Amino acid sequence: MTSGLTTEEVRHYRRSARFGSWADRANHTLLYVLMTAGALLFMLPIYIMVAMSLKTPVEISNSSMWSWPVHPTLENYRTVLSDPDLAFIRKFWNTLLLATVPTVASVVTSAMIAYPFARLRFRGRDRLFLILLSTMMLPGVVTLIPGYVMYAKLGWIDTYKPFIVPAFFGGGAFSIFFVRQFMLGIPREMDEAAKIDGASNAAIFWRVLLPNCGPVLATLAVFGFVGGFNSFMGPLMMLNDPDKMTLQVGLRSLQTAHQTEYHLLMAGAMIVLLPIFVIFIACQRYFVRGLTLTGGK
What is the DSSP letter of 72? Predict the structure, then answer.
């Protein structure tokens, strides 16, 4: 039995294929246009910050914030870095300390706490995990005053302990949940093979699971570093000594009730953004992979 297509049917299929290819091209073109427009929209505040940081106070008052400076100058950056009242360098190291140490501590301890929830079986595990997740429903603002009262009774006000010590206990429910979801996607055959070789639970965690959790740990590191570096309300409440202040609180001194020094404020903000850009670019591959894999669990 033989069958074939008529000339008219062949023409019809060719027209359909040609129309489909054009439709695909149109869809891809529209998608790229929308993505480009979205990227430009998100880059617009960065452009405004850069432009205003290169302007003089007179040019800022006499020109639009959208315009590029006629005579760009780096004097604003020099003023911010050298102003003894602002003490930018000291505040930068304070901020770096409060962003790095808690991030490292929370990444490691969240993985340690997530391991039993993902791999071990014990009585009350699911209920305990549900209680842990329920703490995510509390907004951070709600716990600010109770936290301040607790730290005041411990004598931790005007020290870095309120920012560093809690990080050694998991760094929050979200971090634990995030790592647990990733660990659930790692084949259990790896654990079983390690147990056959005589590995303990601790050895399985450190030698088998943790090396495979690079993407999710890098994602948590980016989240933690950016959150710590940009933290404002916590340092403002807990720290009183000007020598212990962070950059975010220090930049606030450039904005008063009577005057805002936008040229210095934008220059300082650009310097603050640089470490965040570097961290994100360095961890971008792991960051995107961690979000993709964890989001699919």
Answer: -
Structure tokens at 273: 């953004």
Chain center to CA of 120: 29
Task: Tell me how far apart the alpha carbons of residues 283 and 64 are, in angstroms, rounded to a whole number.
Answer: 36
Of residues 221, 205, 207, the one with CA closest to residue 286 = 221
The percent of the chain in helix, strand and coil, each rounded to the nearest 5, is 75, 0, 25
Among 188, 200, 210, residue whose Cα is nearest residue 119: 188
pLDDT tens profile 192-235: 898 888 888 899 999 989 988 888 888 888 889 988 998 888 89
> What pLDDT, in 10s, does the model give residues 68-117?
888 888 999 998 888 887 888 899 999 999 999 999 999 999 999 999 99
What SS3 class is residue 283? coil
Cα separation, 79 vs 94, whole angstroms: 20
The pLDDT of residue 1 is 44
Cβ neighbours for 63, distance < 8 A, ≥ 6 positions apart? 55, 69, 70
Q: In whole angstroms, what is the distance from residue 116 CA to residue 121 CA?
A: 7
How far from 6 is each of 2, 13, 16, 19, CA to CA, in Å? 13, 11, 16, 20
- End-to-end Cα distance, the chain: 50
Q: Are 51 and 65 in contact (CB under 8 A)?
A: yes
Q: Are the CB atoms for 160 and 241 separated by under 8 Å?
A: no
Q: Tokens for 198?
A: 């005589």
Phi-psi region for residue 238, left (φ > 0), alpha (ψ -120 to 50) or beta? alpha
